[in-house]
């Protein structure tokens, strides 16, 4: 049996339609990324000029032997710096704890406390399985209305766009990262993740786990006010 591949159109009109279809497909593929850039464009800041905000949100980025990966450590370093400089009062760490032997939030908490952030100023979200879930839970479960989001540059625009869609007024701080294989993989992954992000923003699905409202952020902010008082 002889396999025959698809035939290219032979007429000029057919070729023109093929080119138009390919161009239309490219435009549609780029629309989600364009949306992310438009939403996050004026919301990106550096650690030095981000507005003072009560809450910082740090997204999980993997563990190595139970400790934050280098990429996650850079995010946590930025959060600790913002806390020490008085730009944020509480850090919400959101990540994956779907297995007993994998606990991103507790590893993030431990790292922050070793770098000068009091345990009482850290709140853990154990069901931040993806960016959309983390944003929705920050709003609906932890009552966060405004936050500084911290992630790598290749991810921060999507984080800002999704948290804005979830109702959290957001400023994004993109931390530096070595341009290694992980960085290139992350950048390429964002092209495909943009499509899912656009669908999440439009259809607003519930997170994998929602549950009752938790007062952790509110209590941490109250402790911060007592300290300042």
From TrEMBL:
Keywords: Membrane, Transmembrane, Transmembrane helix. It comes from the Bacteria. InterPro entries: Cell_Envelope_Assoc, DUF218. GO terms for cellular component: plasma membrane. Residues 54-173 form the DUF218 domain. The keyword Nucleotide-binding does not apply. The keyword Manganese does not apply. The chain crosses the membrane at residues 21-40. This is Vancomycin permeability regulator SanA. The lineage of its organism: Bacteria, Bacillati, Actinomycetota, Actinomycetes, Kitasatosporales.
